[in-house]
Amino acid sequence: MSIVLSLMALALATALGYLYFPGHHYLQQDTQIWLPVLAHAHDPAWFRHELIVTGAHIRLTIFDDVTLAMVRWLGVSIETALAAQQVLFRFLALLGVWLLARATGLSATASVLAATICGMGATIIGPAVLTVEYEPVPRGFAFGLTLLGLGLMAHQRHLLSGLSLGLAFAYHAPAVWPVLLVAGVVFLRAKKAAKAAQVRAMLGFGVFVLVLALSALMSESGPMNPLFARLSESHAELQRMRATYNWITLWGAPKQWLGQYLMLAVLAGLALWRLGKAIPVTVRPYLMALPAIGLLSVPLSYLLLEQARLAVIPQVQIMRSLIFTLMVAVMLMVLAGLKAASLGRWWESPCWLAPAFFIPMAPVWEGKAAAVYLLAAGLALLAALVLVLEKRHPRFAAAGVALVFAACFFAPQGLAKVRNYPKLGDGNLDGLITWAKTSTVRDDVFLFRDIGTRNEPGLFRARALRAVYVDWKGGGQVNYYESYANEWWRRWQRFMKPPFSTAELPALREAGVRYLVFRRAPQGMTEPPVFENEGYRVYRLP
Prior knowledge:
The chain is mainly alpha-helical. It folds into two domains: 3-414, no CATH class; 427-540, no CATH class. It has 21 helices and seven strands. The strands form two sheets. It has a five-stranded mixed β-sheet with strand order 4-3-5-7-6, covered by helices on one side. A two-stranded antiparallel ribbon has the order 1-2. It is globular and about 80 Å long. It starts with a helix and ends with a strand. 47% of the residues are buried.
């Protein structure tokens, strides 16, 4: 397979991964926060009365700058600009794995297969992060660029690698710090002959650090947090209640999950040992250290957050570096399995590949682990036999590669019944959104009074382009500014506790709420709703 065909195959893998598995979605989780922030930055007349924009944390990222530049210069919507970036950085992530596979001596075909398997994604339980983000968020963009940087490093393209890692840092610095930590150690220990290459990487990295610094200086979005401030007791309690993923003591069954990450780190070490000298020396220190850094981030977070209460830790969310423990383990297992198959050791290959196929189907472990692992083992055996046949029977091998390639996108949903994300919203919410866009003005403020912790208000906010006085999803910003956290909690306690009483109406009017939305008919409301369907009733406050 030529380089051109390889790039075409990676582009196809990107498209299939976007459309089918692991898939994509928009306005279900974090993009419910980003959309009003970006819309307000684009035109301050939008969301003037929205609480979320007061807690925006976009000062130290070029995510907003790039997105809004695309909106202004290309004339596209914010959604289109985000989707274009998401597709691009997913492709670059696959390209990074492909480059790493090629550097180990795998054929172009086997390298495409390696990138495709690694692109199936996985969920990092505990800190709540994904190796392939379903939504177009800066963390996902930065991680894709980080994988590209490692792939370029494997081919000694140090300047390009530095540029890739620098751009990743500018998009989302917390996603890159483990790689930068290793890079610093490598630089200090490098001999004179190797320091020149490290300097080129640092120059490339420095370009985007300078861009980020200039962007931060010109930004008017939000204050800067003190680096070594400590969390107050009230702020810490709010974070423990609303952002449990940052607090290891609040994880469900932490010993079980940590045991799995320890096992992954061991498998990464064994695969690295098995690959031996096939791994280029330029990237070997990173593949050795990153899984360990992910593990060490857990006790470090416990000490710095839960004991020292440093306010910067929930903002950086250092335990999310467990993503490197899992991703490096998957990459190395895939490379070890495909390398063994390409060398004719077909019996060894499935032992490495089966866990790599199993991990993306982890959401269905409970009650189905045996069946799912049989599926993973079958795919691993098929991939091994395909590469064994690659040199002897190229035509049969090509058909087999196509079959494994397709299975990566269709088997998890079709056979393992994996559903990475539920559908949010329905026809009733669509009707409410349409009514709000056509029958209300953009300064009107809504409150979903009886919806509890559901995410529909955030979807309504983003699609109807109307402010929501308070909702549960908006509380996800409590990690950043204490003033925001206190205001969100004050609003939530004051107006979201059941049951609703008409005695609240004067306070709601004074707070600026114009429309109350209910899922069930409220008691005591004498005026008829201004909008009603099977799912929602809307009342206008005079």
